[in-house]
Design brief:
Length: 272
């Protein structure tokens, strides 16, 4: 193994261990209540019962879970590291999105915008749930369909009322949050700026990870190593392997974004 290989392996080992600490970081932060008069405490009063703190905590719990799972995926029982071709990328994409959503909601300086973003996220979840239930009813009996639709309508009505109550209490109109949550690209870009990640690196790494979440031969040609090449009658054959350098970059930025988002969560709890 070359010196460069040793350095790369050492970097992977270091970041995998850092990823594994995020769960404990989240658990520790979860136990810390927001100080009276802090930004987050006042945000929670403004958004009860769909509190911003609960939403942020869930987003970062999901990011930490993805982080710990990335370590479990790459670390073998004997302590060695084995890189999959593409399976790590969906985990890192989800980690980036989860951390970005938390940072995006916390980022604005004015409370009203933070509340609007919480409402946008909540309404988007409601829309997704409706589509999910509709898909799950295909093939069900009339009785099963009726029962499910009735229960879902009750649950959806209660959630929508929570959103409306919070909006009314904060002078926010429906057209400011219904069906207008920004794209993931916008959320990740805004989060990257809020977390101090320069030159849209978070967006770039998110795009790269997203490209391997769905099958794409062009992404594979770009982002996978191709060796032992043979060309016969215009047909290229070879061996595909992971691009360890790219994988390490995304791993590092995913950890950086999550760690910074947890820190932002912590800072929001402090008395000004």
């Amino acid at each position: 193994m070359s010196t460069d290989d040793d350095k790369l392996l050492g970097a992977f080992a270091r970041f995998l261990e850092l990823q594994a600490t995020l769960g404990a970081d989240h658990a520790r932060e979860q136990q810390l209540s927001a100080a009276e008069g802090s930004r987050l405490a006042d945000d929670d009063k403004a958004t009860h019962p769909i509190q911003i703190s609960q939403f942020v905590s869930y987003c970062l719990m999901q990011a930490a879970d993805m982080a710990e799972s990335s370590r479990a995926m790459l670390r073998r029982d004997d302590g060695t590291i084995e890189l999959p071709l593409v399976a790590l990328y969906p985990l890192l994409r989800a980690q980036i999105e989860s951390a970005s959503m938390a940072a995006w909601v916390l980022a604005p300086e004015d409370r009203r915008t933070r509340v609007v973003r919480r409402l946008q996220a909540g309404h988007d979840e409601l829309t997704f749930d409706t589509a999910l239930v509709k898909s799950g009813l295909v093939g069900k009996t009339a009785a099963e369909t009726h029962d499910t639709v009735r229960k879902e309508a009750t649950r959806r009505k209660a959630h929508r009322q929570h959103l409306r109550d919070v909006a009314a209490a904060n002078g926010i109109f429906a057209d400011e949050y219904e069906n207008c949550r920004p794209s993931w690209e916008t959320i990740v870009r805004d989060a990257g700026e809020a977390l101090g990640i320069e030159h849209e690196k978070l967006v770039f790494m998110w795009r790269l990870a997203s490209g391997f979440t769905h099958p794409s031969m062009r992404r594979g040609a770009l982002g996978l190593a191709f060796s032992d090449i043979e060309i016969n009658d215009g047909i290229v054959r070879g061996t595909l392997s992971a691009r360890s350098d790219w994988m390490l970059m995304i791993l590092a930025i995913s950890h950086r974004a999550t760690h910074a988002a947890v820190a932002k969560w912590h800072d929001s709890k402090a008395t000004p």
